[in-house]
Design brief:
- By secondary structure, the protein is of the alpha/beta class.
- The chain has two domains: 222 residues, FAD/NAD(P)-binding domain; 109 residues, D-Amino Acid Oxidase, Chain A, domain 2 (2-Layer Sandwich), CATH 3.30.9.
- The protein contains 13 helices and 17 strands.
- A seven-stranded mixed beta sheet has the order 5-4-13-14-15-12-16, with helices on both faces. Strands 7-2-1-11-17 form a five-stranded parallel beta sheet, with helices on one face. Strands 8-9-10 form a three-stranded antiparallel beta sheet, with no helix packed on it.
- α1 packs parallel to α4 and α11 packs antiparallel against α12.
């Protein structure tokens, strides 16, 4: 990049944005990250991620954070178990003890974000900054308008030579490049959780194993995942209307009513699975799944680009969302440090990003369609055992 130091603003302190910031700083390029959360501990960061060698792991090595990752990763979390609706285990893939980083070790999202945040120079992340508007000024520069603080009464305005939209599904940066908006996939997850699972819920903990348990059949299913500290996060998946609860006259804050509705939806399923509904320690969180239209692309626009969910929001059934976001961040940082101008860097980055993300999003859509189909139990078993 030329000797003129560009002003780089990354919007969003998720894995992709933070990976990009870390690698830029390692290469001597200044960057500021803006996030709407009030602080790094303002909200739960979600469940567990499996880091893939060619993407998430690659990005962590490029960020020189591999040792920190290994200290917190859970190789045993690679276990994958399929269970029938009758509660019987029909497939169980247990990683060998030496699998380690050769496979896809798991790490809690919160732990991963902590590693990345701790690696950045002080004050890199400006918390409590909600992007309200990005105003093009010509020549690739943009004026960014933020509201600050919990009440949003104060504002900050900055000018930047590159704005990176790393701000997730409902990105405020994306409209600078694309009219695309996320669409409902037809599948909703209802999240529940078990605390101190091995001692307080031993039956459900044993069924889950050390990694991920899936029971899929007839357009619905249970997915349970081990997290650290004895927590199991589970998702009850349903192919249903986006506003299913409204149609049922259901108040999502009425825990007892939601429990009854979910039990009704899983009539005929084993008690060993419906325990994830009845025994929850965390209540029920409605999570409709959205994805960007396929393929999502945009014309090259000076001074702005996207990464992660802002660029390629897809179903979680690819297992690639965070992995791709981190790879995006690493690729963008490398491109910015190795090209003569910001514009050259964006062009080179997007030439790699767009075809890669289109292919991944297509695979994720296919994965979701087969997981929530009338014959999903048979499809899942065939896929796991290699009998396509």
């Amino acid at each position: 990049m030329s000797t003129d130091t560009p002003r780089i603003a990354i919007i969003g302190a998720g894995p992709g944005g933070l990976t990009c910031a870390r690698i830029l700083q390692r290469r001597g390029i200044e960057v500021t990250v803006y996030d709407l959360d009030a602080s790094r501990t303002a909200r739960d960061q979600g469940g567990t991620l499996d880091m893939h060698p060619e993407s998430g792991q690659h990005a962590l090595r490029e960020a020189d954070l591999w040792e920190e990752f290994e200290r917190l990763a859970r190789p045993e979390g690679q276990q994958l178990r399929l269970v029938g609706r009758d509660g019987r285990v029909v497939f169980d893939a247990v990683p060998p003890p030496a699998a380690g980083a050769d496979g896809n070790p798991e790490i809690d999202r919160g732990h991963l974000r902590g590693i990345l945040l701790d690696s950045l120079a002080p004050d890199t992340v400006r918390w409590g900054h909600k992007l309200e508007k990005a105003e093009p000024l010509g020549g690739g520069t943009h004026r960014l308008h933020f509201t600050n603080g919990t009440n949003g009464t104060t504002g900050t305005t900055i000018e930047t030579d590159l704005v990176v939209g790393a701000d997730g599904a409902w990105s405020r940066v994306r409209p600078l490049l694309s009219d695309a908006v996320p669409r409902y996939t037809g599948v909703t997850f209802v999240e529940t959780g078990l605390d101190e699972a091995d001692t307080r819920h031993p039956r459900l903990a044993a069924l889950t194993g050390n990694g991920t348990m899936m029971a899929l059949d007839d357009n619905r299913g249970f997915i349970a995942q081990r997290n650290s500290n004895g927590h199991i996060r589970s998702y009850l998946g349903l192919r249903t209307d986006e506003h299913w609860h409204r149609q049922a006259g259901l108040d999502l804050t009425d825990t007892a009513a939601v429990r009854e509705a979910l039990l009704h939806a899983f009539t005929g399923w084993s008690d060993s699975l419906t325990g994830f509904i009845t025994d929850t320690d965390t209540g029920y969180t409605n999570r409709p799944l959205y994805a960007l239209p396929l393929p999502h692309a945009w014309p090259h626009t000076p001074g702005v680009t996207l990464l992660g969910d802002a660029a390629h929001l897809m179903s979680p059934f690819s297992g690639m969302g965070a992995n791709l976001a981190m790879l995006d961040g690493a690729d963008l940082a490398r491109s910015l440090s190795g090209r003569p101008t910001v514009d050259d860097a964006i062009t080179a980055y997007e030439n790699v990003l767009l075809p890669r993300s289109a292919e991944a999003a297509e695979g994720a859509a296919e994965g979701l369609a087969s997981a929530f189909a009338p014959d999903s139990a048979a499809q899942a078993l065939a896929h796991m055992t290699g009998h396509h």
